[in-house]
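[Meeting: bench + compute handoff]

Bench side (C.D.) handed over the final construct sequence. Compute side (W.E.) agreed to return the predicted structure before the next meeting so the bench team could plan truncations. Sequence as handed over:
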Amino acid sequence: MTPARAARELTGVPGAGVRRLGDAVWEVDLADGDVVVVKRHGSPGAAAAEAASLRWLAEPAGPPVPRLRGHRGPWLAMDRVAPGRPSPAAAEEFGRRLAALHATGAPAFGAPPPGGPTEASIGLAPMPDVPSDDWAEWFAEHRIAYYARLAVDAGALTAAEARTVEAVPVRAPDEPPARLHGDLWNGNVHWAADGRAWLVDPAAHGGHRESDLAMLALFGCPHLDRVLAAYDEAAPLADGWRDRVPLHQLFPLLVHAALFGRGYARQALAAARSLR
């Protein structure tokens, strides 16, 4: 199927022009004047997971998300959001809205969005969503050990190094499950022309709210200090949260190690050793 045909089937409106944005991502002009982003996932399950995530994160008090226009098989279409530039005001509003989104909660740690598959994905990696009432146990097994094993299978970590990573103490304040974006690195924060920060490319699930914030800090984010200050003012973080950042960052670092190799494995090992 072509992107134009996918746009027509998912929106009911013929496409009038197509522009490639990236690998398996296109922008399609519709005949009615709307513009949509069309994505082709690696599997129908991955498209279904993103669709369920977009619906679940569309909370009025939270950061805005693009309107889902439809999904079928591996294809998904959503409204295009015109790009803008980061600003301190947008960052502060984003921090407050992210706190509000997290507070809407989830049924359990590891719970997928309603109607979403339990075998989801994060980027090009699989992501099992296994509900649990025990965050530490769940995070240790399904976000650290699981991806450490994938990194070993990919040749990025040795078995001994994986044991080092898996031996880190997994502790965090006892808080209810938060509704997470789940893949909140800076590239998935879309600074828009309307002066707001939007959430894109979610891998939503229930988790600890510190995980989203730690991932946001991992690869740099414009005005991060403003985001965190506004978040902490709206929903104060527990003492010592900055010391736990390396723990929460183990998850995305191990995902990247499994996908992209040894450089990220070294960062994961450094984070693990800092937690001893």
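W.E. noted at the follow-up: The domain at 3-79 is CATH 3.30.200.20 (Phosphorylase Kinase; domain 1). C.D. will use this when planning the next construct.
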